[in-house]
Write the structure tokens for this entry.
Amino acid sequence: MFPGIITTDGDKFREECGVLGIYSPGSDIAQLACFGLYALQHRGQESAGIAVSDGRKVRVEKGMGLVSEVFADQSRLARLEGFMGVGHVRYSTMGSSLLVNAQPLVFRYRNGYLAVAHNGNLVNGHELRFDLEAGGSIFQTTTDSELIAHLVARSGETDVEAAVRQAVPVLKGAYTFILMTEDKLLGLRDPYGIRPLSLGKTANGYVLASETCAFDTVGAEFIRDIEPGELVVIDGSGVKSTRVFPNGKQALCIFEFIYFARPDSNLHGRNVHLVRKQLGKRLAIEQPVEADIVTGVPDSSLSAATGVAEQLGLPYEMGFIKNRYIGRTFIQPSQEVRTLGVKLKLNPVRQIVKGKRVIMVDDSIVRGTTSMRIIEMLRNAGAREVHVRISSPPVTSSCFYGIDTSSAGELIGARLDVESIARTIGADSLGYLSHEGMLDSMGLPQDSFCTACFSGSYPVEISSRGKFLFEENKEDDGRCGGCGVHV
Ligand code: SF4
């Protein structure tokens, strides 16, 4: 984060990046990529960038800030002429929130141009970087995108597809890469498919995006999700699919459904809003309570709250109004201002909650600090009782796969039992959805998800050295080294 900024989402898991690739000769690629990035903005708000190829040269424009800020000057888009492009939005860590780490990264090597953007985190990124540096490689950034560029460049293959196939077997972790040469666009998903990537069709070509909501804004139709371990190559002859890794166990990040993804996106054929609503219904069955109204903490919990209300036969009310115009707030992060910061962004509707027994639905509790402030706000607005219901199980473990979580010691679910958490946050009652209830609500095979932050069972093994370096980096800058950023 920029120094001096507080965000009221600080007590949430944070998605790290959104990626987009578009191959569409005859279209205004830069404008389309920009529209696509607007749709993915919720996945990262600290930098944005687009690289475009005209067949001979790859040009890139990127900067710190929201898509609307980085491309406020239309001349930046006008400079990006070509028939295909790569786009990226990024949320980064305090220590690495630098323009140099903004993506896409564009390299020139002996075979020409290579633009790279990615979402996720390599759990062996530190080791790979160390080995490459020992062999003489020099890195300009701290991102995993630069790592894969080095590996591709060193492969000895002149064909980019062959080079990628040779490079990726050493990568361990959760990753979605989009790569672009002068004439080819490539999309790659890790063997477990932890981070999402989908393929769509435009009038003149194809688009790859972290989420399907981007397809609507670029006028594309959904074709299919990219399979775990699949590499797609898009060029003048269409889409070619190959497997870099054999079919294996899938492990899509379940938090995409719970919190990260936009409700109008579909993942594995399931609409995110409808899944969240189902999570709410199951939560109401498992954790019923007598109340007058149900409200959700905007925005990610609203779908689950409607499910709770529908199941309990209670009115769903707009208990909070979210101020959507604050953006990143440049104020000092003192305790007093932090508390005010929540009020700046969320305000209870007094006439709705006054004298009422309120069920407040949220998608997760990470450290508990925001829940505490929101409950206090409801009480100050006159709520008679506040019953908190969480549409996922307690978060007990850190994420090593590119999601910014607190370190394990800061997770309230790892330290306290449910009753103690309820007391700490000031709730009259607290109820979490069960692990089984969460998986049942997905409507997909139960073994197709990563649920490690709830279970501590990690699909991709992490060496003890990798864990050590990860925690050490978090302690260094107060946040994780996510988005594949190694600090
Ligand atoms: Fe997602 Fe949690 Fe797995 Fe990280 S540990 S990928 S946040 S489910």
User: Anything to note?
Assistant: The chain has 18 helices and 25 strands. Confidence is low (pLDDT under 50) at residues 1-8, 329-333, 475-487.
